[in-house]
């Protein structure tokens, strides 16, 4: 089914200006709301220990407690940086 629009009292220049205005607004909205997908970053046990400034045995203990989730391929163990950062919880300030 074809649809048609009839424009009365609109010059081609007015139509172009309206379209340009609409396109500019759409581009601004896209710029503000577009979040490019970041590739997942995998860290080794040593890198996690360095990132959190803890010992590798503490990383192992966190895995055993379910605080950290590990992933493996080819006999190597990795951790997702996004999961490590998401696992950080805010602490309330100490009362004096």
From TrEMBL:
GO terms for biological process: regulation of DNA-templated transcription. Pfam families: HTH_17. SUPFAM superfamilies: Putative DNA-binding domain (SSF46955). CDD domains: HTH_ARSR (cd00090). Residues 42-86 form the Helix-turn-helix domain. This is Excisionase family DNA binding protein. It comes from Christiangramia gaetbulicola.
């Amino acid at each position: 089914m074809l649809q048609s629009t009839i424009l009365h009292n609109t010059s081609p220049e007015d139509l172009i200006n309206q379209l340009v205005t609409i396109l500019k607004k759409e581009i601004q909205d896209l710029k503000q709301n577009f979040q490019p997908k970041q590739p997942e970053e995998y860290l080794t046990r040593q890198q996690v220990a360095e990132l959190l400034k803890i010992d590798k045995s503490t990383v192992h203990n966190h895995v055993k407690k379910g605080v950290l989730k590990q992933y493996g391929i080819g006999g190597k163990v990795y951790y997702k940086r996004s999961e490590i950062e998401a696992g950080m919880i805010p602490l309330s300030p100490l009362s004096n």
